[in-house]
Amino acid sequence: MYRRSVMPNGVRVVTEYIPHVRSASIGVWIETGSRDEGPDEQGFSHFIEHLVFKGSARFSARDIAELMDTCGGHLNAFTSKEHTCYFARVLDDNFMLAVNLLKEMLMHSLFSLEDIEKERGVILEEIKMLEDTPDELVHELFCEAIWPDNALGRSILGTRESIMGASRERLLDFMRRMYSTDRLVIAVAGNLEHEAVVDAFAALFDGWPEASIRDEQSGAVVDVGRLVRFKDTEQAHICLGGGGLPRSDTRKYAMYLLDTIVGGGMSSRLFQELREERGLVYSTYSYHSSYRDTGSFTVYAACSPDHLAEVMGVIRRELTALGTDPVDPSELLRAKGQLKGSLMLSLESTTNRMTRLAKNELNFGKLSTTDETIDAIDAVSPTDIQDLAKGMYVPDLWSTATIGPQSDLAPLKLAEGWVRL
Length: 421
Prior knowledge:
Structural class: alpha+beta
CATH architecture of the largest domain: 2-Layer Sandwich
Strand content: 15-25%
Radius of gyration: 23 Å
Distance between the termini: 51 Å
Low-confidence stretches: 417-421
Strand order of the largest sheet: 1-2-6-3-5-4
Order of helices and strands: EEEHHEEHHHHHEHEEHHEEHHHHHEHE
Largest sheet: 6 strands, mixed
CATH topology of the largest domain: Cytochrome Bc1 Complex, Chain A, domain 1
């Protein structure tokens, strides 16, 4: 059963009571991420996320880890472009332990100079690890290609220069500005009554600012960029795509289905054509990302450099065909079954249910029921898919990002007009 409350300080609490499980997933979500960072603050949201795990006056970093291990729980966090989340999954009997740990971490972290220096080194290693992982790095490069002048195009990790320039004072100032109760959502799914959750968090964030000053951000305009990074890799890694839909767009369910048809599984067009029919790739997929005012669609593939031109040609043909020819009803029916099945299976996890609660509250201010979502998926027609593809899959408006060896990519770079980074 879904319930929602708003505390006097503006903190929103959303819960789903699931009496047949013995666990609870707890999420503290803050509506801030890398998109809120200034050019010289890149990576600050992620840096802060790391530092709150380093301990408080009451619990050291080792204490936090040992307490969670002792009860068999899981405590973690992540930073995205628009959100930061601290979450725990524990037995329902250990709910207050998780709440107290989250309280200490978010309200009383020490941010000691020693810990900051240690974690600075950890994050610099994380940046290096990304540089050594081309199948992840190419997605960062693609964001830079389509949003070159917006924070959405920057890495969540930041740069070496911005991380080196992150002092204790600047990090705490950023946290004070961004961590306010009006940006905060508590989401809990599991064997806990709503009233118990509200009581547990009632006074937890006393002392936090109740309203933050939000800078007016300019809209993120999708650009057309073609970027290449030369690396001594065995494969060429490519992302191709362009502008997508913002979260509030009513065509989002058609977009989910279109994405499923393009590259959402083993029966998708790209997987079947590039891997099963031609044997050109091991990995290929597509995905759609939605933000407050914009979105993107992305196709990824990795192949031998001498097959890159053929792979790109297949991707272009498959995408443009979707705007030209109606989707076969049987293909659409299969995509709907895949999407609905994935949704229902995901609901067997309390963590997924907690995440669904929080994202719906942060993004829409309400929770769409499962039946409403399924009805919206079923309502999408072949014409809806074709119209959406026709408006989005326009080759002249696509951006590309590629990573691979210079000897193989240099001729292609010149032919495509790519810019070297």
